[in-house]
Amino acid sequence: MNQEKLLEVQNLHKSYEKDGVSAKALKGITFNVLQGELLGIMGASGSGKTTLLNCIATIIRPTSGQILLSGTSISAFDENDLAEYRGNKIGYLFQDFALLDNLTGKENILLPLSIHNTEVSEAEKKVIEIAEFLGIREVLSKFPSQMSGGQKQRVAAARCLISDPSIILADEPTGALDTKSARQLMEKLHEMNQKRGCTILMVTHDPNAASFCSRILFIQDGIIFHELRKQQPEESREDFYKRIMQVMAQMGGGSANVL
Ligand SMILES: Nc1ncnc2c1ncn2[C@@H]1O[C@H](COP(=O)(O)OP(=O)(O)OP(=O)(O)O)[C@@H](O)[C@H]1O
Ligand SMILES: [Mg+2]
Q1: Collapsing DSSP states into helix, strand and coil, what is residue 165?
Q2: In the chain, N or C: fewer CB atoms in 10 Å?
Q3: What is the pTM for the complete model shown?
């Protein structure tokens, strides 16, 4: 693996102001993401995981600290750099799916490609291919309100993956999926990572999904509490899963539900 630092998160703090009260969601987070990593982020509800991804995606601004993309601070990006970063470089799979209600599944999936002016026939082919793989062909003509939670999540995944982003930010990508669909989506993300060199940051509560990662950061109350690295040469997913479960148990209760 190429060991270049793709993202550097440096001493990141984020406070939310509400009714004159300040709540600290991130309290000094520092880590690097190497080119080609499949990095997992785990931690209890409210520990700051989505806040961290939103800072990286430039959806919100950190209160202090820096995020560097290949050595350049993303807060120093001009409009063009930002558009390129948001539009072409990163793909964000949102925790709440963020589908547009008045567009069909297919139109939602095509959205990033229409922004990129991709040729229609090529775009159509890509939609069918990815919908086939994720098992959502039958919902392509439906609106989000007519889909199940798991179907919405897979449509959101298809929308994220269709433009071949070089960095994927995935917030609980398997949260609404059954075991089989979760495994299929994880296999797809793993394939994007292994075959196309796509770098992935994935928040998950699911130790099964996490066992696909090459490294996992555990976040507690806005700081990094622990780090696990899959041993090289390739530790089996089963063995890595067991170590993930041990850390989850230390963090509270031992059940997957508590994280
Ligand atoms: N827009 C906001 N305004 C005020 N407080 C917020 C806002 N967004 C998040 N918070 C608070 O910041 C903290 C971290 O929230 P965040 O959404 O990052 O947690 P999370 O780790 O993603 O949780 P979950 O696993 O439930 O998705 C929480 O205490 C939350 O209540
Ligand atoms: Mg969250």
Answers
A1: coil
A2: N
A3: 0.93
